[in-house]
Amino acid sequence: MKILDIGEVAQQSGVSPSTLRYYEEIGLIASVGRNGLRRQFKTDILLRLSLIALGKSAGFSLVKIASMFGKDGLPDLPRGSLHARADELERQIRNLTVLKNALRHVADCPAPSHLECPTFQRLLATASHRKKSQAK
């Protein structure tokens, strides 16, 4: 079994040593020992760190990510939570696409004044309606 020290893990994963120590402190990862003061890890830590990075990118908290590993340390991914998060990301993408298109229109609008532009007026009404429905 090949063992990596914390510096090798940091280099290969892109995760800083201080973050690795923090992850270990909160129980998200585990070292297998030390060589002097340097923590040692099994090579499968790289896969686990990739899964943690993916979870963080998807917006999951470290606590939620930790719960996605079984007692044996293997991924035990909650498909329902993943579907719900994917649905939320899809909504955010749609909203951001609408916002991007609105900003492009406003930036390129040929009307002498934005307030004279019917498209701009519709965009304002849509934004106002969306804000009201999100507040509920």
What labels would you give this structure?
8% strand, 3 strands, elongated, 6 helices, 136 residues, mainly alpha
Fold and architecture overview:
By secondary structure, this protein is mainly alpha-helical. It has six helices and three strands, in the order E-H-H-E-E-H-H-H-H. Strand 2 and strand 3 form a beta hairpin. The model has no long low-confidence stretch (mean pLDDT 89).
Q: Give the count of helical stretches.
A: 6
The structural class is mainly alpha
Secondary-structure element order, N to C: EHHEEHHHH
Major sheet, described briefly? 3 strands, antiparallel
How far do the termini sit from each other? 55 Å
Q: Point out poorly predicted stretches.
A: none
Mean pLDDT: 89
